[in-house]
Amino acid sequence: MRFQLLGPLSITDGGETVVLHPSKPANLLAALLLNAGSIVSVDYLQRMVWGDEQPATARAALQTCVLRLRRLFARHEVVDTPIEAVPGGYRITAGGRSLDLVEFRERVRRTQEPGLSAEAAMGALQGALALWQTGVLANVRSEAIHRDEVPRLLEERLRVVERLCDLRLEVGLCGQALVDLWSVTRAHPDHGRFREQLIEALYRTGRQTEALAEYRGFKAYLADGLGVGPSAALQRLELSILRGEDLGPASEPPALAGLPAGAPAAPAPVAEPPGLPPVPWFTGRAEAVATLRRRLTAAPEGAGTPVAELVCGGPGIGKTALAQQVAHLVRDDFPGGRTLVPMAAPDGSPRAAAEVVGELAARLGTPDAGSGPRALLILDDVVDAAQARDVLTAVPGHGVLLTSRLGLAGLVATHGVRVHRLGPLDGAEARELLTAVLGAERVADEPSGAEELAAVCGHHPLALVIAAARLGTRPALRLGDCARWLADDPLGRLSLSGHPRMSVVELFDAALDRLDPGLAAAYVALGALGEPGWHAADGAAVLGLTVAECEAVLERLADAGLVEDGPPGPYHPHPLLRLHARLVAGRAGGGEARGPAGTPGGAGAPSHAGTAGRPAQPGRPGQSGRPAQSGQPAQSGQSGQSGRQTGQGGRPGHVPPSGPAGRTGQPGPAGLANSPSQPSRSTQSNRTSQPRQKV
Questions:
Q1: pLDDT for the residue numbered 260
Q2: Rounded to 10 degrees, what is the CA torsion of 578, 583, 589, 592?
Q3: Residue 184, CA distances (Å) to 159, 188, 234, 271 in order
Q4: 177-186 core/surface letters (b: 16 or more CB in 10 A; e: else)
């Protein structure tokens, strides 16, 4: 008996084929066979069977599905591929005789054996492709499998088609190559390598006019649909065709062909440059995307001159998503590849510049991060300007995109970095994002509900994605009903179960943990202000500082991405951040402080704890700079103490140690206004490590 994955999921004995009916056991079987020979975790199997939203009884139901599969195997006399329960999950063992996917991979692997002729390699690749049928896993009704696994399978097939066409071009079988290339270029119009092979095959068969027409049609398609131009390789091919040059051997001779006896060894293949995929559901930011693309693709002003752009803004505002999407769009201008390196450790502290440079060199495949073909580097989540400055010095000649919650004004002055500050989406962009996730029909059916939902989320990208993801799993739920449900507790309900990165509260908590304790206390205390904007004079009364000192505090909060705008006008916190400040104040005072239902941070008297429960004023002698949490009274009158408190839901809170100005035991509000916005190493060692949350 043999399983078939490269088409509808089925079992065959060579004569009779049984196509499995769509069911949860069929989802489970597909997930196991896709990972044949490996231990597959229970969590992965549950996600493949039920999706991201799993029932509470998923683990027990999974065992029932395994039992049903074993009965199916017994009914069809499947004895060579048993399902084993092993520590950590399940495993199914299958070879080339019992699973078509394994046979496909074995055939492809044999084409890489040394000494194999081009004709033999082409025969093996054709045999491998013959195993495929239409409708891969069409009877498996698992959104997770079709989202995460089927595209990977199809990509394997396309790579084999690409290699087969390369071989045919290499040995002069251009007519045979054209038969496949006409169909795959139409089925995959964005695949530039297939289009390049088609144009080359047309030219090699004497069809110069058709080759040029195909090139110009593809160039127009890219310009109209994606706003990009053909790759450098395609442009060189067009120039050769226009000049009537002899192309000689194929442009990319495959490494599958054997070498004649006594021939020198071929050089080692060059590793494919690193790349970044497009961002799912990315919408809006058209002006920022256009500006970044124009600046990054412009010719450097001189040899070794870096082109550095900074994308900054508050937590969850979409900095990394914008940088990654732009990197995908400009991929053809960076032959050295595109790579993203985190600049912060898991606890939020800055990574050493030498460590980052070493990682960049390893990813780019060069001994020196500043050498090799021009690459685009994304330095993600910069938390220290000096760290970023050292890395920029080590990578001359490459394009660099930095993302940070900080403004990093010093880099503008010293390294010519240009800044793009992101705020919430506008109304049209928020609607576009909801449309991308939920579909145009559902949003058009309830335009007022979409507007209400965007307003409740404050047009915040992460909040909108979380809300849309919830709606995507509940097709019968109306957008307006979801908006009103979220409005009752937007911070508590804007999260996805089991995904800590997909939680507004977790994200904002992590951002607060990065602040100097005194600055964190100021942020929480200012949340009590009822006005839509924070003026230095009003904040001074709350914090017990002078107006000038309070303005310095607000400037540091703006630099940390927690408020927008600034002098001479008011500072504006995002409505969800304002709610978060009140929530943290409520934890300190033993209550849940929230804004009015339906309007995050909207008008109305805030419900916050009284004077006894308010967070300690920053910089006051004998008071902790960070509020206690979850009903724990703030420790006061205990200078020099440091420790941890267990907060709401087990989340640790912090009592700052004595030390720099603006912390316990240090006099004067002015200490807070002048202390650094980032905690020192000694401070971080006394604070509870929190996993970094960001978008």
A1: 35
A2: 130
A3: 12, 6, 17, 25
A4: bbebbeebbe
Comparison of pLDDT for 116 and 669, the residue scoring more: 116
474 DSSP 8-state letter: -
Q: What is the pTM of this model?
A: 0.51
The string of DSSP codes covering 290-310 is: HHHHHHHHSPPSSTT--EEEE
- Can you tell me the mean pLDDT for 651-680? 35
Per-residue DSSP letter, 83 = E
pLDDT of residue 523: 92
pLDDT for the residue numbered 413: 77
Contact 69, 83 (CB under 8 A): yes
Angle between helices 192-204 and 174-187 (to 10 degrees): 150
Helix (H) or strand (E) holding 674: helix 670-674
The residue ranges of DSSP E strands in 547-622, in sequence order, are 564-565, 571-572
Q: How far, in Å, CA of 352 to CA of 461, rounded?
A: 30
Alpha helices for 35-81 (secondary structure H)? 42-50, 58-75
Phi, psi angle pair for 403, to nearest 5°: -120, 140
Q: How far apart are CA 90 and CA 408, in angstroms?
A: 49
- End-to-end CA gap in the chain: 47
Based on C-alpha coordinates, what's the Rg of the chain? Answer: 30
Mean pLDDT of the residues in the chain: 77
Contacts of 345-350 with C-beta under 8 Å, sequence gap 24+, read 345/692, 346/689, 346/691, 346/692, 347/684, 347/689, 347/690, 347/691, 347/692, 348/383, 348/510, 348/513, 348/514, 348/684, 348/690, 348/692, 349/383, 349/681, 349/684, 350/382, 350/383, 350/384, 350/387
Tracing tokens 């880099």 back to the chain, one arrives at: 411
Amino acid 500: pLDDT: 64
Q: How confident is the model over 296-309, as a mean pLDDT?
A: 68
Residue 266: pLDDT over 60: no
pLDDT at 220: 87
Edge-to-edge strand list for the sheet holding 338-342: 338-342, 376-380, 399-404, 307-313, 418-422
Is the pLDDT confidence value at 618 over 80? no
**Helix pair 42-50, 58-75: axis angle to 10 deg:** 80
Residue type, 268: A
Q: What confidence tier does 275 reach under pLDDT thresholds 50, 70, 90?
A: low
Q: Check whether the bond before 657 is cis (ω within 30° of 0).
A: no
Residues 6+ apart with CB under 8 A from 439: none
Are residues 200 and 237 in contact, defined by beta-carbon separation less than 8 angstroms?
yes
Q: How far is CA 221 from the centre of its chain?
A: 27
Q: Are strands 399-404 and 307-313 parallel, antiparallel or unpaired?
A: parallel
pLDDT value of position 532: 79
pLDDT of 533 > 80? The answer is: yes
Contact predicate 151/137, CB 8 Å = no
Alpha helices in 4-57 (DSSP H): 24-34, 42-50
DSSP secondary structure of 233-264: HHHHHHHHHHHT----S-SS--TTSPPPTTPP
Which residue do the tokens 């630099």 mark? 559
pLDDT for 131 beyond 70: yes
Q: Helices 536-543 and 517-526: crossing angle, nearest 10°?
A: 110
259, two tokens: 């070498």
Any idea what the Cα angle at residue 651 is, between residues 649 and 652, rounded to 5°?
140
Which residue, among 578, 568, 571, has the nearest Cα to 557 in the 3D structure? 571
- Separation CA 585–CA 90 (nearest Å): 47
Residue type, 24: K
Q: Which of 585, 653, 660, 644 is nearest to 616 (CA)?
A: 585
Residue 658 reports pLDDT greater than 70: no
Pairing relationship of beta strands 652-655 and 643-646 according to DSSP bridges: antiparallel
Segment among 255-269, 376-390, 496-510 with least mean pLDDT: 255-269
- Banded model confidence at residue 454, pLDDT cuts 50, 70, 90: very high
